[in-house]
Amino acid sequence: MFEIRSKDNLGRTGVLKTEHGEVRTPALMPVIHPGKQTIDVKRFGAEIVITNAYIIYRNPELRDEALRRGVHGLINFDGPVMTDSGSFQLSEYGDVEVENHEIVRFQDEIGTDIGTSLDIPTPPGVSHRRALEEVEITLQRARESLEYRERMMLNAVVQGSTHPDLRRYCASQLAELPVELHPIGAVVPLMESYRYRELVDAVLSSVSELPPSRPRHLMGAGHPMIFALAASMGCDLFDSAAYILYAEDDRLLSTEGTYKLENLQEMPCSCRVCTDYTPSELRGMEAEDRRNLIAEHNLHVSFAEIRKVRQAIYDGSLMELVEERCRAHPRLLEGYRRMSAYVELSERFEPRSKRSAFFYTGPESLGRVEVHRHLQWVKKNLKGRMAIAGPSRKPYSSTLPSSISGFRSMKPQADGEWSVVVADVPFGLIPLELDQVYPLAQSDAPGIMDLEARHFLRELILDLEGDVIISEDLCSELGLQLPHPYSGEVETYVDDLDRIRMIAEYQFGEGAGDALFPDDVRIERSRNTGKIRHIYSGEKLICTMRASDGLFVLSAEGARRLHDGTAYPRCRVAVNEESEPFAREGRSVFAKFIIDCDNNIRAGDEVLIVNAHDELLATGRALLCAEEMMDLNHGQAVKTRKGGF
Amino acid sequence: MFEIRSKDNLGRTGVLKTEHGEVRTPALMPVIHPGKQTIDVKRFGAEIVITNAYIIYRNPELRDEALRRGVHGLINFDGPVMTDSGSFQLSEYGDVEVENHEIVRFQDEIGTDIGTSLDIPTPPGVSHRRALEEVEITLQRARESLEYRERMMLNAVVQGSTHPDLRRYCASQLAELPVELHPIGAVVPLMESYRYRELVDAVLSSVSELPPSRPRHLMGAGHPMIFALAASMGCDLFDSAAYILYAEDDRLLSTEGTYKLENLQEMPCSCRVCTDYTPSELRGMEAEDRRNLIAEHNLHVSFAEIRKVRQAIYDGSLMELVEERCRAHPRLLEGYRRMSAYVELSERFEPRSKRSAFFYTGPESLGRVEVHRHLQWVKKNLKGRMAIAGPSRKPYSSTLPSSISGFRSMKPQADGEWSVVVADVPFGLIPLELDQVYPLAQSDAPGIMDLEARHFLRELILDLEGDVIISEDLCSELGLQLPHPYSGEVETYVDDLDRIRMIAEYQFGEGAGDALFPDDVRIERSRNTGKIRHIYSGEKLICTMRASDGLFVLSAEGARRLHDGTAYPRCRVAVNEESEPFAREGRSVFAKFIIDCDNNIRAGDEVLIVNAHDELLATGRALLCAEEMMDLNHGQAVKTRKGGF
Ligand SMILES: [Mg+2]
Ligand SMILES: [Mg+2]
Ligand SMILES: [Zn+2]
Ligand SMILES: [Zn+2]
């Protein structure tokens, strides 16, 4: 059973529940070598481990002990245990001496929490024909494993080599099976040779077809350099043999890459090992002591990075972490650059509001979902006579002068009214009405603009339909040479009603502005900041503007207005009869009770909770996106507000 | 006394020697509050601390104890102690009740290792007139402090507010005084408000005029986010009160920024505190226990970052670390972008060969010294008929086909011979002859090119003088539309003699190719790699090509040839009479014996060691650049090779 707790891009934190306890995800599973393990991984933060059932199965002593005491006893770990099936050996040696049904049954018998069917780990770069043949075997074995497992959860591995269509095919077929988790397999050769662009293609092709309700395991990913990027692609589980393999080779893991002990003058981290020893002390030690200490360091940095990734998802700063981590190697950056090709996939899962600001940290930031999403809105909604001003401090409407002069344009423009739009990095074009709304207001970029950002703004402006005048400062910053000066002045005043209606349209979609706000609304402002706080119709509160993100929280009256003014399924989450009374009481909506919802819902959205007959029950804030609401069977989906319905 | 041990950009690792022991730099000096300190900073790695002499002076009890037991006894630290003079209080409260001569004498009397004169900490943004007046007072006090100090080393603080010309003026005046260290003062307000662009201007204006032989202390810099950037600007000392101040405010330091404990779900690092406690455990503690544990975390991450910075300088990967760290905040990235304005300053100090590869991790990488330096060479030396090919795997000459067709050009071109030049990121244009030379060969960039890189290549190619044909692939990659197809084939064969002569010119300057290599050289190749290893004239070895960087190591014969074929001071380091016999024996050359050298020498260069009469004594590898050789009085300057002279 898997619950999602917080989300950022395709990444999520969650809880995986097993018979041997809960696991916080993203999670790192240290690889435990049965019979050889000397390091107690629990004290580093391991909540789940992985071991190899094939090795146990093939060794009579280990096998007997596992059958007698269970795998938890054998490896001396009382938390959840995942087992692999021998497909690693298959990829290394080309052959294994076990059948799928034997190894699946064996895993079940020894008490594995999560077992794996014997998939075919097709390597990168093989022909489409061979990859497809092997995918069919992998699929067949996944299907038959369902018959052999009694009690354990089942991993069904996505294969397909470096053919994205086959990854999608395999994933979509596996999605139909009642299995619990999905490893993404045979990617180790890509990671070993820094082919991160192909890794991104393999992972995102798979993830695009996998149900969001099941954890995905990036098999063999044990280098902390990759955790943030992989988590941002929706991977929930990693396994590390790297901690010990690298240690045996005197190599120290780090999020910036790998250090060889022989080259170290200084210990490069804050862990116990790096604080208590010097590189020359380590070099002077017996091999085994040295190996154990380096393995400890490797575990410390790996688990610290996993914790940092979980924190970043919770904070909504995962992509900032990814953009930082991807500087560890140009090929990692290349992989991240490739991710922008999947922006429409990410958009389906990206929350609409997050705890932290958007940081522009390089041209890649322009490829982020938040920018894509805003530009979609801009293309559809920015029309008419627009006066484009250059960036100023945020919120723009408070720092711009009350009127601006000095504009130029492509063709001569008559005097008259203009709506002011600010051109700025990273969000491109921001109508003044939206200058306090997340993430447009909660963003920052270097004051020294790079060429890509300049090009981005130029193209956006030149693509605008309607009449456009552009401030002279901005023209010269962007290298735009426009023939016609405009002699008039442009007022920067924003009418309150225009502002709140545009925010409503931005937040709830077309028509929401008129639906929510009659012409005679009454607006209350914060005494401290002067910002809009409450909006009333007469004495009735319609909504409150949340200070943190400038978006609206609906009152019962506001919810009724939105409900009346829009058609099903807009902004709706429909729940079944059983949960109707709970929703009416303001209790949170659990995913399993949801029978339908607006496809356009994203985590962070204000939603209307209705029953099957579209009767309004409550309002609340979505914790999941539409696809997750429909797919998940565990955990909260909407945090409901006490109603008045 | 300060020695430089390794270098990268303007950064250096070094050793500062004091009466109370040696300090490895860059170093972090925890601020110790006299009478209040509860944390033993030594166990976190502190080799030097800083405390405030003004606080001690103004408190009768502390003053008596300091005078009786010395400052080391007072604060219970037996390593080097630096003291500040009260100028912090001056900046905070506008006034101090002490005179410069009193506080300087007092510091000397209580046994401070490094004392500070009472400078005026002029804040950012004040008028040029006021800043200049205060700089004059600061200078006057620095001068008179020399009379009052008996034994301690003396800090002379660079001020000048946000006026770069005044920072330069102040620094150049202080450079004339026989003081030992230079704090760069009054930058805390810039760091607190993320004005990193102005910080870069203040620091680099100062550093440009300060003698390289003296450590520079970035006063008040205690956030690990800034250490890498500051070190790359030549700062050697940092001081941290942040570790405890942030802890008192429940804030955790990190190289990615600052975490508030209230927002933490996970402990974000690998230190003991983060491994042993959860955020909610910390939140549940008594304030003092919590503060101490957070302070411990803050010290662990700060010292880990200092060690990582030192390691990066040693590895030659400091700029890669800076480029990663600057993603922590857009304003930090802006500061780094500003650094490229100082590339000519950095060039004077940047080593010519380093241990690690050049990673392109964003458009800013194109502003790095290595690129600037190579392009200077390209502009001066790339001439004639050039066939520009697109990037291939390195080394290009091994992966390009033996002949290429499909070129286009601006004007019609006649058939004939072409030299092949590869256009690639980040080095722009690389003649095939140099395709194994550092850093051209030891570099990597993402396979997905960004707009800035494309623009960079396009501009370089369009600026080329001479006849140029460009491969069609490259034309389409760069969006170049050239009217004339070239129908001929271009050979990619590189003649060995052409190759080694061009490398010699690249390494030793104009004329070195002919000076070193007669037409009848004999070339020996590596059996394993097929690469050139040894070059002989008859039986006499001229030089060896170093496998790690593709540059030449001179034999005695090679040195004689280079010496004969070039005029003084080219490639020369001239030593005094005293050290002549040691140099002849192959003993390393110490900086203090150097009487003259070629201005163009950089760390990593092969140099000729001569006496005052330009008689050749030995060859060796420079460890310092020309300015450092002339300015430093301690430590090695050239690692000499056993001679045969
Ligand atoms: Mg953020
Ligand atoms: Mg490097
Ligand atoms: Zn460590
Ligand atoms: Zn920590």
From TrEMBL, chains A, B:
<dbReference type="GO" id="GO:0002099">
    <property type="term" value="P:tRNA wobble guanine modification"/>
</dbReference>
<keyword id="KW-0328">Glycosyltransferase</keyword>
<dbReference type="InterPro" id="IPR002616">
    <property type="entry name" value="tRNA_ribo_trans-like"/>
</dbReference>
<keyword id="KW-0479">Metal-binding</keyword>
<dbReference type="InterPro" id="IPR050076">
    <property type="entry name" value="ArchSynthase1/Queuine_TRR"/>
</dbReference>
<keyword id="KW-0808">Transferase</keyword>
<dbReference type="InterPro" id="IPR004804">
    <property type="entry name" value="TgtA"/>
</dbReference>
<dbReference type="GO" id="GO:0016763">
    <property type="term" value="F:pentosyltransferase activity"/>
</dbReference>
<keyword id="KW-0819">tRNA processing</keyword>
<dbReference type="InterPro" id="IPR015947">
    <property type="entry name" value="PUA-like_sf"/>
</dbReference>
<dbReference type="Pfam" id="PF14810">
    <property type="entry name" value="TGT_C2"/>
</dbReference>
<feature type="binding site">
    <location>
        <position position="186"/>
    </location>
    <ligand>
        <name>substrate</name>
    </ligand>
</feature>
<comment type="function">
    <text>Exchanges the guanine residue with 7-cyano-7-deazaguanine (preQ0) at position 15 in the dihydrouridine loop (D-loop) of archaeal tRNAs.</text>
</comment>
<feature type="active site" description="Nucleophile">
    <location>
        <position position="84"/>
    </location>
</feature>
<dbReference type="Pfam" id="PF01702">
    <property type="entry name" value="TGT"/>
</dbReference>
<protein>
    <recommendedName>
        <fullName>tRNA-guanine(15) transglycosylase</fullName>
        <ecNumber>2.4.2.48</ecNumber>
    </recommendedName>
</protein>
<keyword id="KW-0862">Zinc</keyword>
<feature type="domain" description="PUA">
    <location>
        <begin position="571"/>
        <end position="645"/>
    </location>
</feature>
<dbReference type="InterPro" id="IPR004521">
    <property type="entry name" value="Uncharacterised_CHP00451"/>
</dbReference>
<dbReference type="InterPro" id="IPR002478">
    <property type="entry name" value="PUA"/>
</dbReference>
<comment type="pathway">
    <text>tRNA modification; archaeosine-tRNA biosynthesis.</text>
</comment>
<feature type="binding site">
    <location>
        <position position="271"/>
    </location>
    <ligand>
        <name>Zn(2+)</name>
    </ligand>
</feature>
<dbReference type="InterPro" id="IPR029402">
    <property type="entry name" value="TGT_C2"/>
</dbReference>
<dbReference type="Pfam" id="PF01472">
    <property type="entry name" value="PUA"/>
</dbReference>
<feature type="binding site">
    <location>
        <position position="274"/>
    </location>
    <ligand>
        <name>Zn(2+)</name>
    </ligand>
</feature>
<dbReference type="InterPro" id="IPR036511">
    <property type="entry name" value="TGT-like_sf"/>
</dbReference>
<dbReference type="InterPro" id="IPR038250">
    <property type="entry name" value="TGT_C2_sf"/>
</dbReference>
<dbReference type="InterPro" id="IPR036974">
    <property type="entry name" value="PUA_sf"/>
</dbReference>
<feature type="binding site">
    <location>
        <position position="269"/>
    </location>
    <ligand>
        <name>Zn(2+)</name>
    </ligand>
</feature>
<dbReference type="GO" id="GO:0008270">
    <property type="term" value="F:zinc ion binding"/>
</dbReference>
<comment type="similarity">
    <text>Belongs to the archaeosine tRNA-ribosyltransferase family.</text>
</comment>
<dbReference type="GO" id="GO:0003723">
    <property type="term" value="F:RNA binding"/>
</dbReference>
<feature type="binding site">
    <location>
        <position position="119"/>
    </location>
    <ligand>
        <name>substrate</name>
    </ligand>
</feature>
<dbReference type="GO" id="GO:0005737">
    <property type="term" value="C:cytoplasm"/>
</dbReference>
